[in-house]
Amino acid sequence: MKLRNALFALLTLTFAHHALAQSAGEAIRTKDAEWMSYRDAYKTMLWFEKYSKAKNLIQLQLQVVPTDKSLSIDQLKLHILGKTTHLDLPLDALGRASLPLLKAAYDDNAELVINQKEGQAGFRFRTSINLRADGIYELADLRAACEQTLGYQAYIDPSAYRGKRCIGVRFAFAKKDAAATVEFKYLTQSTNLALTENSGLWPDSPHHFKTSNVIFGAPGNVPAFTQTSPKIEKGQIHTRTSPLAIIALIE
Question: 126-165 pLDDT, tens per residue?
Fold first, then answer.
C-alpha cells in the first residue's frame, strides 16, 4: 500500500510539473504577445540550408520589425518558448537573429515570441550579404553575392523575380555613425562614394540609416568616378566602420 501511494504521489507530481512547464512556456503569448510558429520559421530556414546552389556570400536571418513607431530595437526581446524549450535569441542593431535549427524545439512545437503585445511588431526573413571583418570588399565578390541573392530569391518565388537582374549593392550604416565611409579604390585612384542621410535599407524599412549604393557597370569597363551615379566593376570597396548590413539591389 505504501509503495502504491508513493508511486501515485510521484505520478501526480510529474503530471503537475509538466502542466506547470507548459503553462510557463505559454505565459507570454497568453498575454496577447506577438508570436509565430517555430516550425514555420524552421522550415523557412531549412529551405536556405538545403538550397544547393552557391550561397557562401549571403545569409538568411529572421528580423523582428517594430510596427509601433515608439518602439526601438533595444526594447525588443525574442524567445523560443515551448513545453520544454526556453531560449533567448540575441538581436542585432537591425533586430535580426540567427535562428538555430533545433529539432527538440521543432518536436516541442515551440513558438517564437516577442515581448510586445500583438500588432506592435512583426517578423520578416531577410537575405543579406556577409560582412567582412577587414572592411574590404572586392567588386567581383559583391557582384557574385548579388547574383547569389537573386538566385535564392528566384528559387523561393520564381514569378516575382522572373526577368529581374542585379544592378548593385547597398551599404547601410547607423544614423549616428559619424565616421561612416564607403571608399572605392581602383589601381592608384580612390574616391568616397556619396552617403544618403535618413535613408531606408529595405523598401519597407524606416528611413533611419545612412546608405550608399554601389552600382555595377558593364564587365570590363574602367570605373567611372562620379559622385551622382557611380557605375563600377573593377576594384574594391573599403569601409572605415562596419556597416549594419549590405543588401543586393535587384530590379
Answer: 999 999 999 999 999 999 999 999 999 999 999 999 999 9
Q: Is 204 exposed, middle or buried (0-12, 13-18, 19+ CB in 10 A)?
A: exposed
Q: How far apart are CA 115 and CA 61, in angstroms?
A: 19
Q: Beta partners for 88?
A: 79
Q: How far is CA 56 from CA 12, 146, 190, in A?
A: 52, 12, 28
Contact 41, 63 (CB under 8 A): no
CA 149, CA 248: separation in Å to the nearest integer? 7
Domain boundaries, the chain: 31-127, 131-250
Q: Confirm whether pTM is higher than 0.85.
A: no
Contact present, 214 and 168 (Cβ < 8 Å): yes
Three-state DSSP class for residue 211: strand
User: What does the block give as the cell for 1?
Assistant: 500500500
Helical (H) or strand (E) element with 10: helix 2-25
